[in-house]
Design a protein that fits this description.
Blueprint (H helix, E strand, L loop, with lengths): L2 H25 L1 H7 L5 H10 L1 H12 L2 H9 L1 H26 L3 H23 L5 H19 L6 H19 L4 H25 L10 H8 L1 H18 L2 H7 L2 H12 L6 H24 L2
Helix pairs in contact: 1-12, 1-14, 3-6, 3-10, 3-12, 4-10, 4-12, 5-10, 6-9, 6-10, 7-8, 7-9, 7-14, 7-15, 8-15
C-alpha cells in the first residue's frame, strides 16, 4: 500500500472515531442536563455560554486560530452574521435545556430527527433547490407524523419545531459565513457572554443562583458546561474534514437515536400517537438516507 493510501485510511479512521465521539456526546447530553435539573434553565444556559469562552480560547490557542478570530472580528458583515447566528444558537440551546428539564426528551429527539428534512426545505425555499422524489416522500412522512402527534396526541411539538427551525436557520447563516467551526463558535459565545454574565450576576445578587450556593457537586457540574459545549463541536469539525458528506450524514442520526433512548430511560411515555409519529419520522429518515446515498455514489 502506498504512503498516500495508508494516510487516507488513517484519516478515515480518525474521522470515524471523532464523529462517533461528537455524536455520542450530543446523544447523552440529556443526562448532563438531568444532573443539573435543579438549576434554572436560564442559569444553565448562562454557564454554558460563560465557560465555553476559556475552554474555547484554549482550543483556539492550541490550533493557532487566533488570526482567523481577529479577521472575523474586524470584518463588519461577517461579525453581523455571527451575531445573528449567536442569537439563534442561544435560542436552540435554551429550548433544548427546557425540553430535558421538563421531561420532553422525546420532543427534543424528534427535533433533531426532522432537522435534516427542514434543511432540505430551506434549500428549496432559500436556495431554489428542487426536491427529488425520495426527499418529497420523506418530508410528507415527517409532516404526517407531526400532524398525528398534534391532533391525536393532543400535543403540538413546539419544542421539536423550534429546535429544528432554529438550528436550520443557524446552519444557513453559518453556510454563508466563511469561518472555521471553532473560531465561529468562539465569536458567537463572545457575543453572548456579556448578557450571560449580567444575568448570572443578577441571579446571584437576588439569591436565586445555584452556582456556589448549593454544593460543590452542582457547581462543578456547571463548570463542565463549557467542555460539553466545545468538545463535540471540535470532534465534529475533525470528522467533517476527514469523512465524506454521506458518512457524516448517516452518523448524524446517532445523536437523536441516543436521545430517544434516554427519554425511555427517564420514564417518558411512548404513547400510541408518539409511536406513530416516530414511525413516520424513522421511515422518512430511511428515505432521506437512501436519497443521500444515491446522490453521492
Amino acid at each position: 500500500m502506498s504512503e498516500t493510501g495508508a494516510q487516507s485510511k488513517q484519516d478515515a479512521r480518525d474521522g470515524v472515531i471523532a464523529g462517533l465521539i461528537a455524536y455520542t456526546l450530543w446523544g447523552v447530553l440529556p443526562v448532563y442536563f438531568k444532573l443539573v435539573e435543579t438549576v434554572s434553565s436560564s442559569e444553565v444556559l448562562a454557564h454554558r455560554i460563560i465557560w465555553a469562552i476559556p475552554f474555547g480560547a484554549l482550543i483556539i490557542h492550541l490550533r493557532r486560530q487566533w488570526p482567523e478570530v481577529l479577521l472575523a472580528l474586524r470584518h463588519r458583515q461577517m461579525l453581523l452574521w455571527l451575531v445573528a447566528s449567536a442569537l439563534l444558537i442561544a435560542v436552540n440551546w435554551y429550548v433544548y435545556i427546557v425540553a430535558v428539564q421538563t421531561d420532553r426528551i422525546f420532543q427534543a429527539s424528534l427535533g433533531y430527527y426532522i432537522n435534516p428534512l427542514i434543511f432540505v426545505l430551506a434549500g428549496v425555499t432559500i436556495f431554489g433547490e428542487k426536491l427529488r422524489a425520495k426527499q418529497t416522500g420523506a418530508v410528507i412522512l415527517a409532516a404526517i407524523g407531526v400532524l398525528v402527534l398534534t391532533f391525536s396526541g393532543g400535543e403540538f411539538p413546539w419544542i421539536s419545531i423550534s429546535l429544528g427551525i432554529s438550528f436550520t436557520a443557524y446552519g444557513v447563516i453559518r453556510k454563508r459565513v466563511v469561518i472555521g467551526a471553532m473560531p465561529g463558535l468562539f465569536i458567537e459565545t463572545l457575543v453572548l457572554v456579556p448578557i450571560a454574565i449580567v444575568w448570572l450576576a443578577w441571579m446571584m445578587r437576588a439569591g436565586e443562583a445555584a452556582f456556589g450556593s448549593v454544593g460543590t457537586e452542582v457547581t462543578g457540574l456547571l463548570l463542565l458546561a463549557g467542555p460539553i459545549t466545545v468538545v463535540p463541536l471540535v470532534m465534529f469539525a475533525v470528522a467533517a474534514r476527514r469523512l465524506t458528506l454521506a458518512t457524516v450524514g448517516f452518523m448524524q442520526f446517532l445523536a437523536p437515536s441516543m436521545q430517544f433512548a434516554t427519554g425511555i430511560y427517564y420514564g417518558e411515555q411512548l404513547t400510541t400517537p408518539r409511536l406513530i409519529c416516530f414511525a413516520c419520522i424513522w421511515l422518512a429518515v430511511v428515505l432521506f438516507s437512501m436519497d443521500a446515498l444515491r446522490d453521492r455514489t
